[in-house]
Predict the 3D structure of the following.
Amino acid sequence: MTLDVTAVKADFPLLGREVHGCPIVYLDSGATSQKPQAVLDAMNRYYETINANVHRGAYHIAELATIASEDARRSIARFIGATDEHEVVFTKNATEAINLVAHAWGRANLAEGDVVLVSLLEHHANIVPWHQLAEERGIVVRWIPLTDDGCLDLDDLDHLLEGVKLVAVTAVSNVTGAIPPVRRLADAAHAVGALCLIDGSQYVPHLATDVADLGCDFLAFTGHKMCGPTGIGVLWGRRELLDAMPPFLGGGEMILDVRQDGFTPNEVPWRFEAGTPPIAEMIGIGAAVDYLEGLGMDAIRKHEMSLTDYALRTLGDRFGDDLLIHGPTDTARRGGILSMCLREIHAHDLSQVLDQHGICVRAGHHCAKPLMRELGVTSTSRASLYLYNDESDVDALGDALEEAARFFDF
Amino acid sequence: MPGLEDLYREVILDHYRNPRNRGELEVPPALLAEGFNPLCGDEVKVYVQLDGDTITDVRISGQGCSISQSSASMMTTAVIGRTVDEARDTLRSFKQMMSIHEHGLDSHESPQDGSPEVPSGLGDLEALRGVVKFPVRIKCATLGWNTFDQALAEAHS
């Protein structure tokens, strides 16, 4: 199955708009993806026809709302190859999913001196929760170093794993696009009795995901980077781990019983979903995975690999050494994330010129400051590709980069 | 829609290419403050040398975009040789110029150039007036100034 990108583009209403008189060229899906009409319609349909709180009312539309939102949980489970839908916990975003593990599992299982092994590719969301546990109870945060081409240096892995209780790594870098060997890391973690958490924020939207193949114990990802709405994320965890974890937030929905002298928590996953959930967003993320499955994740990955190859090749031809694109060059080992430095032009100035042409890229440190320091830069301009991008978008980027090079020619 | 030339005026590009008063001063006796733009990771260090109430030297180090670098460079030339009170007046005027927002990013209305509340007498610094048409960049333009303000506050801490 190949992707009909023209048809895909037409599914996304925002991609039809203009910016500063130019057709929009959206190259910031690593920050958030655009939303197809099917997702917007599903969310609107909920509000227009079955808006009611879930797991409460015994009336018809409340039942329909409950069914629709729980259907989304089943869709997510299917999408990531989870056999038990109770292993799918809805959170606010991937950040909250990782914080849930840090608070609920971490507080119950980590003590002073225990090591959490992270990599230098991590987003702040998979760093700061562990730093917080380090401050709170003296755990140690250890770092997997990088190779020269921005991949993980695992030569010394056995040594790195000493005393490790959790390996917490990203499956695709949001800066370099590098795809680390997470299966190898998960297996290595298990061999020393540790668990493995994968930050799938940049992976699940782009590559067919099967938690059994990944071999991890926890997988965190977010809805808004995979054609779904903001305000909804997922923590998948192995059932026996979730069952053993104490609640995170307290309130309604997460309890079986509340007495004057205490409470009894609900079963998973609801134990971790205190308060009224983001019902429309659950339905939205469900519609998003239905949409992605309809196109086929393998077709999406194939398209992105071919487009990434086109971008690396044509931009390399046009700019040579003037344009540095961080990360691996082999598209089998990277996603469609292109962190660029054009000569000495600051990322903010570069993205300003691109914006004049309707081109949306992210400028800055991408919430990965330890990695940026390692790369020796304070900021980059990041173009990130997704299913609705095509060669004309890459060509427009190249044209605008040429103008920026002319404008700042000094 | 404001164009690039509204933002990148020649005097700005000049200060970016040839930044004035870059470097460091010995601390103490100089005052030092460090500023961050969390949006883009820019970091700036501002060193201030006082002789009594007079600012005798200011040095800038760190990295940043053309707007933050040129704004900090222009600031040094505007405040060196002035008293602390005079520098603070300039700082206030500059920040007032930076706080004039356009209404609605999608609008094509021209900004309120020359309206009565716009301070004048800023000299070269007025070249940065165009930054307010690009609200995301206002933090770039004010980074060096806010850091300078922090350094002055050190004198009284």
Observations:
- Chain A touches chain B at residues 20-21, 346-349, 352-353, 356, 363-365, 369, 372, 378-379, 407-408, 410 (CB under 8 Å).
- The CA atoms of residues 259 and 265 of chain A lie 12 Å apart.
- Residues 40-294 of chain A form a domain with the Aspartate Aminotransferase; domain 2 fold (CATH 3.40.640.10).
- Chain A has a mean pLDDT of 95.
